[in-house]
Amino acid sequence: MEELTTNAHNKQISLVQKKSKLPIILSSIALVLSLLSFFITKATWETLAKRVTIIDIAQKLENGTVTDDFFLNRASFNVTGDNKEAKFDLLMQPSMAKKYMNRGQFDLPDQEVKNKMISLIDIVKDYYVASNGNKIVQWDTISIIVTVHNHEIGTYKNGSVTLKGE
Fold first, then answer.
1. Which end of the chain has fewer CB atoms surrounding its CB within 10 Å, N or C?
2. What is the pLDDT of residues 149-161, one digit of tens each?
3. Which residues cross the membrane (predicted)?
């Protein structure tokens, strides 16, 4: 009987020892999970802050970026991932509207259209850089699709314009 009691007592001790390790293991797991969630939350927060900054820049540019020929009607940036691009939809000043034929075509020499596009995009670039956009995505890495009334007229990349169809 004494042997049975000793075995039962040893099993109880062994069970108590196992149970006493369980809180330590659970605490360790909880600590690892909380540290992991802190880093995920921080990374998520940083991504969200970048997106909000880019949206704020785009919103402030819209209807406030004006040249003698165009004004920026809508700006959107998609700068997450590998493909960095923006889309600018332009409306025309009255003098330029007279030279607009239709579907992104102008009754102007190609080089003149390019220069007019670059004039507006240079204003956007200056504001983007001044608003710390370069801390999120370098301006020179962004490809910009330019449209008039949602009809593509060309693409801007690294300081130069390629008109649609070129």
1. N
2. 999 999 999 889 9
3. 22-41
pLDDT digits (tens, 9 = 90+) for 39-63: 667 777 788 788 888 988 999 999 7
CB atoms within 10 A of CB 18: 9
Give the 3-state DSSP-derived string for 30-99, with helices as H, strands as E and coil as C. HHHHHHHHHHHHHHHHHHHHHHHHHHHHHHHHCCCCECCCEEEEEEEEECCCCCCEEEEEEEECHHHHCC
**pLDDT for the residue numbered 28:** 73
User: Is 40 exposed, middle or buried (CB count within 10 Å of its CB: 0-12, 13-18, 19+)?
Assistant: exposed
In DSSP terms, which residues pair with 66 in a beta bridge? 71
Max CA distance (Å), the chain: 110
Q: Is the model's pLDDT at 122 over the cut of 90?
A: yes
Q: Considering only CA atoms, which of 99, 94, 74, 88 is closest in space to residue 122?
A: 88
Instruction: Give the confidence band of 30 by pLDDT, cuts at 50, 70, 90.
Output: confident
